[in-house]
Amino acid sequence: MTEVVAGDGSTSAGKGAAVVLEGVSVRYGAEQDNGGLLAVDQVSFRVEAGEFVSLVGPSGCGKSSLLRVIGGLQSPSEGSVSVLGAAPQEAQASKRLGLVPQEPALLPWRNVVENLRLPLQVNRDANHGPDRVGEMLALVGLETFAEYRPHELSGGMQQRVALARALVIDPDVLLMDEPLAALDEITREQMRYELLRIWSAAGERSKSVVFVTHSVAEAVTLSDRVVVMSQQPGRVKAEIKIDLPRPRRAEDQRGDAFLDYVEQIRDLLRDEVAEVVA
Question: Among 80, 84, 210, 252, which is least packed, fewest CB within 10 Å?
Fold first, then answer.
């Protein structure tokens, strides 16, 4: 049932890849005499079109660094990255990339609708197509809160606004950096299934998602595939295909198959901690 892949990127091969990383390394402070800090080391994997892939690993293993590289926010020290067959910066400039950060980062003086319009106003030259603000408000269930300001919303509602803002430009690739981490456990669980509903609502136009999380259960709930990272410097230790039927429901988390995946990934992460302690 479980497909575990050695971390060399080889079994992710296939046609229609939305994101391709080949031999990516990220080094900070490389101008120093000691060569700086190697945060990510020779990472290779692919994300197919419409696929939901989660990155999990110990703190400091470079998950967020990889997300910034994919998003064109920083360049890799070594290796190559392509998004939709082009450089990340090109995909970003054409608004084919959406980003949902850990904190919603909403502008406090703008209401919900005005926050959603921000990406459309920042890049007026991009062809955004029809105005999708109303559609995105409906998709995340916030039509009646259109005129509310961020401080008048709960944490979960603010995160839904951030998700709608990323989707309003209709990106093909969605990057999510621990977007649920700041929520309480009950709201976080609700948001997992809200996110699945929104992702699946696109049908044949499902977004390709790269999702960073520290929660193994969250990764298994959401993902088609989980990429397990090693301790810093981060390497791909394994890729685990999650062969669970969709749509996924809260009660599925009590099933044996779900729990087997969770335990398998946790075992891989425990090995990393044990190696550091030893």
Answer: 80
